[in-house]
């Protein structure tokens, strides 16, 4: 199963990613430095995130999954620094 997921952080910002193997403990490759900058040391001591599957397919090609990922990133504006942690594709507010 191939999936597109959304990670929601305690500050409400999101990250959209893909997982071509549907690994339950995969939480993406967002830039850690961007996330760290938004949380104090104390906030980092007790931290809960949510992963939601937005889309899934048994038959989509890897290329189709990548296109769907970009579609969700743009739709949800997770590439807008005010909204999320995706930095590609670039946001043009």
Description:
The protein is an alpha+beta fold and 93 residues long. It has one domain (2-76). 27% of the residues lie in helices and 23% in strands. The protein contains 3 helices and 3 strands; from the N terminus they run E-E-H-H-E-H. The chain has helices spanning 32-36, 41-45, 62-76; strands at residues 2-8, 14-19, 50-57. A 3-stranded antiparallel sheet has the order 2-1-3. 20% of the residues are buried. The mean pLDDT is 96.
Shape: globular
How many domains make up the coordinates? 1
- Count of individual helical segments: 3
The rounded distance between the terminal residues' Cα atoms is 33 Å
Average pLDDT works out at: 96
What radius of gyration results from the CA coordinates? Answer: 13 Å
Order of helices and strands: EEHHEH
Would you tell me the structural class of the helices and strands? alpha+beta
């Amino acid at each position: 199963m191939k999936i597109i997921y959304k990670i929601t952080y305690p500050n409400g910002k999101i990250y959209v990613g893909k997982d071509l193997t549907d690994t339950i403990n995969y939480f993406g490759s967002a830039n850690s430095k961007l996330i760290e900058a938004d949380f104090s040391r104390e906030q980092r001591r007790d931290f809960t995130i949510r992963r939601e599957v937005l889309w899934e397919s048994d038959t989509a090609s890897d290329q189709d999954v990548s296109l769907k990922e970009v579609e969700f990133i743009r739709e949800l504006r997770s590439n807008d620094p005010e909204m999320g942690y995706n930095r590609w594709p670039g946001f043009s507010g």
